């Protein structure tokens, strides 16, 4: 059975599908310098990191308890869908690691408002994702 699963993972990976793979590999959890944080007065207290498919918000991250009036309707619907499907629980906490297509989409869901994810997410040193990306280029 193990061999079958490994073969299926390999085949799906070649086809460009990331099934049976964890959103975030936690074996390097001590490497906190890879993680970024959002902490707002609205109750958001989230951790995430850039991944191949976009930006992943980690299980246990808290999202703002309400959304702003200026938040686009499509983002409000996405956030409500995450709550309805159980990805965000009644305490406004992620119940699983969740990958978003961009840091901005992740930041908007977490903060309950429009957000530039490249400046909203900061590492332990207070550097924005944008400033770290600029240095690494």
Automatic annotation (TrEMBL):
Pfam families reported in the protein's UniProt record: DUF4357 (PF14267)
InterPro entries: DUF4357
Domain DUF4357 residue range list: 79-129
Protein name per the record: DUF4357 domain-containing protein
High-level lineage: Bacteria, Bacillati, Bacillota, Bacilli, Bacillales
């Amino acid at each position: 059975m193990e061999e079958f699963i490994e073969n299926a993972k390999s085949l799906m990976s070649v086809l460009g599908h990331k099934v049976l793979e964890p959103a975030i590999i936690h074996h390097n959890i001590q490497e906190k310098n890879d993680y970024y944080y959002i902490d707002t007065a609205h109750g958001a207290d989230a951790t995430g990191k850039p991944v191949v498919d976009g930006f992943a918000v980690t299980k246990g991250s808290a999202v703002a308890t309400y959304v702003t009036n200026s938040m686009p309707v499509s983002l409000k619907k996405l956030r409500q869908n995450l709550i309805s499907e159980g990805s965000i629980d009644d305490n406004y906490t992620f119940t699983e690691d969740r990958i978003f297509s961009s840091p901005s989409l992740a930041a908007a869901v977490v903060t309950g408002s429009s957000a530039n994810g490249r400046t909203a997410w900061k590492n332990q040193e207070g550097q924005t994702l944008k400033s770290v990306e600029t240095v690494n280029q």
